[in-house]
Amino acid sequence: MLDTVPHSTANLRQPDWYKSATRWTQLTLAEDDPVRFDPAFWIDVFKRTRSNATCISAGGYIAYYPSKVNLHYVSKFLGDTDPFGALVEGARSLDMHVMARVDPHAIHEDAARAHPEWVMVDRDGNPARHWAYPDVWVTCAYSDYNFKFMPEVLREITANYDIDAIFANRWQGHGVCYCDACRSDFKAASGHDLPLTNSLEDPAWLAWGAWRRTKLSRLVVEWDEAMKAIKPHTSFIPNMGSVSLMEFDLPMIEKYCPFLCVDDQGRRGTEPVWMAGRNGKRMRATFQDRPAILITSIGPEEAYRWKDAVTLGPEIRAWMDSGVTQGLLPWFTKFNGVVPDRRWVEPVAESFGLHALLEPALAATAPVAEIAILDPTTTLRHHDHHSRRAAEAHDLGFYHALVEARLPFEMLSDAAMTPERMDQFKVLILANSTCLSEEQAEALEAYVKRGGSLVVAYETGTRTPDNDRRQTPLLADLLGYEVTRPSRGPVKNTYVALNGDHPINRGFDGAARVMGGTHLIGVEAVADAAQPLLYVPDFPDLPMEEVYPREEPQGAAIVAREHQGGGRTVYIPWNIGAIFWEVLAGDHGRLIANSVRWALGKRPDVELEGRGVVDLSVRAGAGEVMVLVNNLTNPMMMKGPIREVHPIGPLTLSLAVPEGRSVGRVHLVSTGEDLPFTLSNGRVRATMGELATLEAIQVDWN
């Protein structure tokens, strides 16, 4: 059946070639591959996986073609072969798009001796040997190696091979470089010495982030121009993941990144399966209509770097299918062209095959949602990759709570808060947008006046975009509170008491109080605001005989307010998102879901009934709505790798019928099977049977 899906050749070697590059095979070659690997095997993989695009190792650290660029290290096993050229020719014979891969993060001894200024220097003044392979040297990403040497490599590849683009991995550097050029350049640009810490209180650290952004933005421009001067349809494609969207100026990405690559190749440690799909939402949060690709490794993604191993098939599929659910195009990567373990081929082919079946419907629709989490790029751009995950815990907690509650949602970047983008949603969630500008606050206030609703938590609006603390949090007047006590914590053994019969309190039958947070802000609510929860004043957690409250509940632990324009706001003055992400207490998840449902002020348009944990995505077209349902139900959902699939079902979709529409057909997209449906109270209901991994239910309107 999959062989009936043809490749599109309409835009081969055209500037918009990437629009039909929807399933990618990446082969990262090892140095001895020229004498060991079988190119015919990989051409067959292209066919079996229905790949219509490929990314192949070409040069940078090692050249897999007979390079003539001085000091460009060529594989010592190359001989008179050209493995890169052979793979390009094989892919083009299948009418595939081709992207060359370069990696400029390390150089060999001869280049380091000839150009010591190309080598990164650590804070103690030592040239940096490679952390994993000390025979070679780590490059300074801000040096002439990237700005003079690598453009020559890109020009050679572009001129001599039939490619559409060049993709760079590890091109952004590895933290602060303390070489003489970086010291003088940074000093001249900022007036600071290079930072010795990554503290958000260090002005040199904040200035270094801006300086680095400028240098690397210039690099993207120059590499792209070098290629286009030879073949105008080609592009330089930086490995620009979701984190990079916070590190670079958006106009640069808009102009020079026609599509975006998410290099998040698999789960590490305790990560939920939905983390792959979150990357898709995050990309759309900034660039709503730009194609985005999820790079998936066929091996485990752990600190121990088993890069030539194979993960079990169900885990590979789960990660890929999660990305497809949230609109990411599939791409798999294999390190080493020799394949001693082929267990990955079939699951990749199955996942790619499912995408090929869904692709026409995906292309005809676009994601829609009533709810969005605001991606706090203004806050997160001050963090490095070590501290960013802790800062994101608030957002991750809200994300997981909405997945559990089966409330479909998108994300919206705080760098893209136009009225048109904001008004696509009825509720915006600010889980902990610490740094906000006055312009962003004004946009949110105007959104509420237009009838939009907000759910806001913890220290949102307490700092400026430059991370300076504010006297009064932005949005406090809108949300209806005054601060009576600054944030404190960590606090143990805290509780919040249910206060009256507010909808936010529902579902806690039998409980007078539930678990509170670990970092608390004292607030007083304005007169017209409800206080569904009150703080229970602190009391000891030891000795056990002393574990009892001394005072009655007092001080708002949730502030809920209705506004004249029809919008609603909820403020939660404690770290509910972060503590839910850490502890996963059901009461915290229910409070988040109840707050969002109350802010929505209506029954959600999309509901799914039945047992199990699922991730939902809703897409709409001119005459249809499609709901993708991704089965996450698995004992390994929060800790990989998944060993086997646990099917669920039956599942019943309930969907609001838009005014002026009637239902023509309900069917499963992958098989075309019609589903019987009923109509009642303005909603259509249809039930699907067993769900193994991923399926899409489509409702066609008359």
**Could you give a short account of the major beta sheet?**
9 strands, mixed
Mean pLDDT, rounded to whole units? Answer: 94
Any idea what the shape is? Answer: globular
Low-pLDDT stretches: 1-7
- Tell how many strands the DSSP assignment holds: 30
Oligomer: single chain
CATH class of the domain at 371-600: Alpha Beta
The assigned structural class equals alpha/beta
Summarize the amount of helix as a percent range: 25-40%
CATH superfamily of the domain at 371-600: Class I glutamine amidotransferase (GATase) domain
Which band does the percent of strand residues land in?
A: 15-25%
DSSP helical segment count: 19
Strand order of the largest sheet: 13-12-14-15-22-21-20-17-18
Specify the CATH architecture of the domain at 371-600. Answer: 3-Layer(aba) Sandwich
Rg (CA only): 27 Å
CATH topology of the domain at 371-600: Rossmann fold
Give the N-to-C terminal Cα separation: 30 Å
Domain Beta-galactosidase trimerisation: 396-484
Protein name: Family 10 glycosylhydrolase
Pfam family, one: Glyco_hydro_42M
InterPro entries: Beta_galactosidase_Trimer, Class_I_gatase-like, Divisome_Glycosyl_Hydrolase, GH, GHL6
Describe, in plain words, how this protein is organized in 3D.
- By secondary structure, the chain is of the alpha/beta class.
- It has a domain at 371-600: Class I glutamine amidotransferase (GATase) domain (Rossmann fold, 3-Layer(aba) Sandwich), CATH 3.40.50.
- 29% of the residues lie in helices and 23% in strands.
- The protein contains 19 helices and 30 strands.
- Strands 13-12-14-15-22-21-20-17-18 form a nine-stranded mixed β-sheet, sandwiched between helices. It has an eight-stranded parallel β-sheet with strand order 7-6-3-2-1-10-9-8.
- It is globular and about 80 Å long.
- The relative contact order is 0.08.
